[in-house]
């Protein structure tokens, strides 16, 4: 599958910073965040950054399907 079929989500310390990015947007934001953390003193470190790759529209990521947290709503 091409990267066009995927969406990227960027997190810092479990907080979603950017969601539903295409590959180009992801690359730009990821590089920008890493550069910012190297230049600016913040509560975040490079190790706090991570990302998830989702297959568009079907709830899959690179590790397979993941149920939402919590119990059933019924």
List the helices and strands and how they pair.
Layout: E1 6-12, E2 15-21, H1 23-39, E3 49-55, E4 60-61, E5 64-65
Low-confidence stretches at least 5 residues in length (pLDDT < 50)?
A: none
Secondary-structure content class: alpha+beta
The number of domains is: 1
What pattern of helices and strands is seen along the backbone?
EEHEEE
Span from first to last CA? 35 Å
Helix content: 10-25%
Strand order of the largest sheet: 2-1-3-4-5
Counting DSSP H or I runs of 4 or more residues, the number of helices is 1
Sketch the major β-sheet: 5 strands, antiparallel
Q: Approximately what portion of the residues adopt beta-strand conformation?
A: 25-35%
Query: How many beta strands in the DSSP annotation?
Result: 5
Shape: globular
Mean residue pLDDT: 80
C-alpha-based Rg, rounded: 14 Å
Keywords:
74 residues; 34% strand; 5-stranded antiparallel β-sheet; alpha+beta; single chain
Task: Describe what you observe in this structure.
The chain has 74 residues and is an alpha+beta fold. The chain has one domain. It is 23% helix and 34% strand. The chain contains 1 helix and 5 strands; from the N terminus they run ββαβββ. The protein has a 5-stranded antiparallel sheet, covered by helices on one side. The radius of gyration is 14 Å and the shape is globular. The model has no long low-confidence stretch (mean pLDDT 80).
